[in-house]
Amino acid sequence: MVKDIPLFPLNLVVFPREELNLHIFEPRYKQLINDCLLTKTTFGIPSYVETRIEYGTEVKIVEVSKLYEDGRMDIKTSGLRIFKVLDFQNPWDTKQYAGGPVELVECIDDTDASKAIRIVELCRELFEWLHMQEEIGLGETAVMYDVIHKIGLKPEEEYQLLKMSSESERQSYVINHLENLIPALERAEKAKEKIRMNGHFKHFDPLKF
After folding, report:
1. Which helix (H) or strand (E) holds 80?
2. What band does 209 get if pLDDT is binned at 50, 70 and 90?
3. Widest Cα–Cα separation across the chain
4. How many CB atoms lie within 10 A of CB 104?
5. Out of 34-38, 51-55, 102-106, 147-151, which region has the weakest mean confidence (pLDDT)?
6. Burial (CB count <10 Å: 0-12, 13-18, 19+), residue 99
7. What integer pLDDT is reported at residue 204 of this predicted model?
8. What is the pLDDT of residues 110-122, one digit of tens each?
9. CB 77 within 8 A of CB 22
10. Which of 101, 95, 80 is nearest to 14 (CA)?
11. Between β-strands 19-24 and 73-85, what pairing exists: parallel, antiparallel or unpaired?
12. Rg (Cα) of the chain, in Å, rounded?
């Protein structure tokens, strides 16, 4: 499906079902948001992480949390669908902001419940290592997008996740990342302990031959 939508490029990745809070202050984007509110339409956030405009996520405005006297605003948005930009027009028609036709990408919702549980388990282990378990609470109903930006993925890796057409494939990618990251943290922690012990008197049990 192809549709024309306003485009708001950002140097980040937004995923479907992810909640994103934005502070709107540039005149062109104040115009974009006001137009969307007036017409009750969505807009797109192309991910500008590989120095080009290609893939992004369509989002809807959930709430205007605060409106400032000078027209700035704080808004809450929610990710809907992934799209591929067919033609990035900047400016778009008579508007100050960019826009153009995008093709909505068909994603397979094959979420694997066992993988979802595994992701929560690994995230809890990771946050314990980082001493962040109290800052980032994870309930039994937590989903991948609650923590996706907090598990050490590079923007380019998040972008690769965005372009995947299968939810199960995304889950496997995240699990593989965490299963490699956590042992690396363990090795780093042991290395720190060895460094701390340098210069200290050490007690060793005698070896038995």
Report:
1. strand 73-85
2. very low
3. 86
4. 15
5. 147-151
6. buried
7. 53
8. 989 999 889 989 9
9. yes
10. 80
11. antiparallel
12. 22
What's the token pair of residue 150? 């907090």
DSSP 209: -
Q: How confident is the model over 143-164, as pLDDT tens digits?
A: 778 788 888 899 999 999 999 9
What are the structure tokens assigned to 146, written together? 């609650």
Q: How far apart are CA 159 and CA 156, in angstroms?
A: 5
3-state secondary structure of 150: helix
Residue type, 48: Y
Provide CB contacts within 8 A for 5, sequence distance 6+: 41, 42, 43, 44, 58, 83, 99, 100, 102
| 200 burial type by CB count under 10 A (0-12 exposed, 13-18 middle, 19+ buried) | exposed
